[in-house]
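Quick one, C-alpha cells below:
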C-alpha cells in the first residue's frame, strides 16, 4: 500500500496491492506454531472420567453398588495405568469390586462384587489393582 502515496496507480493495481497485503496477514495467522506440549495436553485431556455402559449401569444398580467420588477417582487412575501399559481390555480391582474396562473407549463394560460366584474373567489383556 506504500505505492499509493508516492505515485498514481490504477484501481486494479491498488486492488492487487490491497489483496496481497491481506493474504499475507491471513497467512501469518494460519501458520501459528503449536507446541507438542499443547497437542499432547489437548489429547490427554480428552480422556475424561470413564463412562459406564448400559450393561454396567444395570449391574451396579441391581447390586446396589454406589461408587464414592474417591472410588471413581481410583477407577480412573487404574484405567490410566492400563492405558500407559497399552492394555486394551483391563480388569480393574478395587476394594471388593471388579470392573472390566475397554480402555480405548474409556468404558466400563461390566462391574461385579468379589462375593459373587463368577470369579472368571475372559477377554482381558491386563489387570490393575487400585
Amino acid at each position: 500500500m506504500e505505492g499509493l502515496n508516492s505515485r498514481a496507480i490504477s484501481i486494479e493495481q491498488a486492488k492487487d496491492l490491497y489483496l496481497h497485503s491481506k493474504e499475507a496477514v491471513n497467512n501469518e495467522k494460519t501458520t501459528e506454531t503449536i507446541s507438542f506440549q499443547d497437542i499432547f495436553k489437548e489429547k490427554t485431556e480428552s480422556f475424561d472420567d470413564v463412562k459406564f455402559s448400559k450393561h454396567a449401569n444395570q449391574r451396579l444398580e441391581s447390586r446396589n453398588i454406589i461408587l464414592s467420588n474417591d472410588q471413581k477417582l481410583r477407577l480412573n487412575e487404574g484405567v490410566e495405568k492400563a492405558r500407559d501399559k497399552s492394555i486394551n481390555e483391563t480388569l480393574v480391582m478395587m476394594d471388593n469390586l471388579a470392573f472390566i474396562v475397554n480402555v480405548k473407549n474409556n468404558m466400563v463394560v461390566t462391574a461385579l462384587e468379589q462375593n459373587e460366584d463368577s470369579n472368571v474373567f475372559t477377554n482381558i489383556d491386563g489387570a490393575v489393582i487400585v
